[in-house]
Amino acid sequence: MGLELYLDLLSQPCRSIYIFARSNNIPFEFKHVELFKDSVLGKKPAAGSGAEQPRAGPSNSEGAGKVSLLKKVPALKDGDFTLAECTAILLYLSRKYNTPDHWYPSDIQKRAQVDEYLSWHHANIRANAPKTMWIKVLIPLFTGQPLPSEKLQEVMEGLSTSLKQFEERFLQDKAFIIGSEISLADLVAIVELMQPVGVGCDIFEDRPRLMEWRRRVEDAVGKELFFQAHEMILSVKELSNIQIDPQLKEQLAPVLMKMLK
Amino acid sequence: MGLELYLDLLSQPCRSIYIFARSNNIPFEFKHVELMKGERATMSLRESGFRVQKHLLSLTSFLEVIAILLYLARKFETPDHWYPSDLQKRARVDEYLSWQHVNIRGKGSKLFLTKVLLPLLTGQPLPPEKLESVTEELNIVLNQFEEKFLQDKPFIAGSEVSLADLVALVELMQPVGAGYDLFEERPKLAEWRRQVEEAVGKQLFQEAHEGILNAKNLTADKIAPELLEHFKHQLLKQAS
C-alpha cells in the first residue's frame, strides 16, 4: 500500500497536486472522490476556504472521509500518515520524492518568493476565482434560480483586481513567478485561474501577458497532462446533467441562496 | 545595513515575527510603524536590498507572515523544532499554517473588528446578535483547532513548539484583546497557551501583547480617517 491521493479534478487544489505528481512521475494511487455525489459541500461554502468537505459515507468518499482529519479534498495518505491542505501536500511530495529544485528552490530568497505567493494566493485569487463557478454554475444548478448577473459582475471585478495585482506584483516581466523557471507558485496559480475559464469567463482573453505565462506553464508541465487534468472543468457545463443527490440539493439550496445576498 | 523589521504589534502577524526573532536572538532593527495613525509599509523585511514584502496594510489582511517567518528560520538556522526537518512533522506545521488563513485568522480578526471597531465606526453600541454570531463562528473553528490540530498533543507538531503554535497563539490573542476570553472555558487550550508562552519566554510574550491587550481603550479619534474608511469597507464586506 503506497501513496494514495484523494482527488476530484473539479477542484483546483486537487488539480495542482495531480499535475505535480504526474509531472514528476510520482507513483500514486488515484482515489477518485466525487464532490457532488459523495459530499456535503461544507456548511457554508465560503468561497475562500475552498473547504470541500466530504462526509464519510458511501463508497468513493469513505476513504477520503476516514483519511483526512479535516475530511477535505485534496487528501493524502502515505501508510499511516494522512495529510490535508494543498500547500502542505505539495511540499510533502516535493521533499519526499526529491523533485527538481526549481519547484521549491533551495535558494532561500527564491523560496521566500514562492512562500509569499502561496500565502497571498489564499486571500486573493483563491477568494475570487472559485466564486465564478458558484455563481455561474452551481447556484443555478442547486437552487433552480437563474444566474444572478449583478453578483457575477461583482465577482468578476474582484477577480480583476486580484489579477492585476498578480501581474504587477508577482509575475511582472518575468517568465514565471520566481524568474526563469516554473515553481509551485505558478502551478497553484494556474489551476485556480482555469476555474473561471471552465465556466465561460475567459480571463486570459484580454490579458496577453497572462496568456503567455499560461502557455509557458502548460509547456513546462506537459500540454497533454495539463489538458487531461482540466478536462472535467472545461466541460463543466455537463455538470448540469449530473445527478445531484436530492438530499444534498435540499440541504444546500438555502445555504446557497444566502450566499447570493 | 542589517535586518530591519517594520512592525506594529497591534497586528497579529507582526507579533509572531517579533516574538520569533527576539526569542531566537536574531539581531534586527525594530522599526515601529503605527497602523492606527495610517502609517503603511508594516511588516516588511528589508535586508541588503531584498524585500519580501512591499505592500501591506492593515490589522487583518496580511498573510505573508509565513514567508517571512520561514525565511528567518532558514537564514538564521533556528532550532529544528520551529520548522522540523522530519518530513511528517514539517507537513503538520505546513498543514496548520495553510488551514489557519481563513479559519483561526479569519474568524479571530472578524471578532476583533466587530467588537472593537464597529462601535467606533458607527458610534452605536454593538448589537448583541452581531457579537453572538461572530463569536459562534469563532467557536466553531476553535473546536476544529482543538479536535483536529492539537488533539492530545502538547503542541501542534507533537512534543515541541513550532511556528504553527506561535502563529496560532498570536491570532487567538486578538479576540482576547477585544475582551473575549476564549481560554476561560477551554482548559486544554489554556494549558497549550501556557506552554507556548513558556517556550518563547513569558516576559517576551507579555511585552509583545501589551498593546493589543489595551485595545479596548481605542477611541475613534486615535484612528486615522483613511483607516476608519478602510475598516468600514471591510466590515461591510464581511457583514454580507
From TrEMBL, chain A:
Instruction: Report the catalytic activity.
Output: RX + glutathione = an S-substituted glutathione + a halide anion + H(+)
* Residues passing through the membrane, by range: none
EC number(s): the record gives 2.5.1.18
Q: Where in the numbering of this chain does the GST N-terminal domain appear?
A: 1-101
SUPFAM superfamilies given in the database record = GST C-terminal domain-like, Thioredoxin-like
Tell where it localizes. Cytoplasm
Kindly report the protein's main subcellular placement as a broad class: cytoplasm
| PANTHER family assigned | GLUTATHIONE S-TRANSFERASE THETA-1, PTHR43917
Similarity section: Belongs to the GST superfamily. Theta family.
Stated name of the protein: glutathione transferase
* Originating organism: Strix occidentalis caurina
From TrEMBL, chain B:
The record, for Pfam families, names: GST_C
- Please indicate which superkingdom the organism of origin belongs to: Eukaryota
Q: Give start and end of each GST N-terminal domain.
A: 1-80
Compartment(s): Cytoplasm
Q: What is its main location?
A: cytoplasm
| UniProt xrefs under InterPro entries | Glutathione-S-Trfase_C-like, Glutathione-S-Trfase_C_sf, Glutathione_S-Trfase_N, GST_C, GST_C_Theta, GST_Theta, Thioredoxin-like_sf
**Molecular function per GO:** glutathione transferase activity
Q: Where does the GST C-terminal domain lie? A: 86-218
SUPFAM superfamilies from the UniProt entry: GST C-terminal domain-like, Thioredoxin-like
Enzyme Commission number(s) of this protein: 2.5.1.18
Keyword tags: Cytoplasm, Transferase
Coiled-coil region list: none
Subunit info?
Homodimer.
This chain belongs to the protein called: glutathione transferase
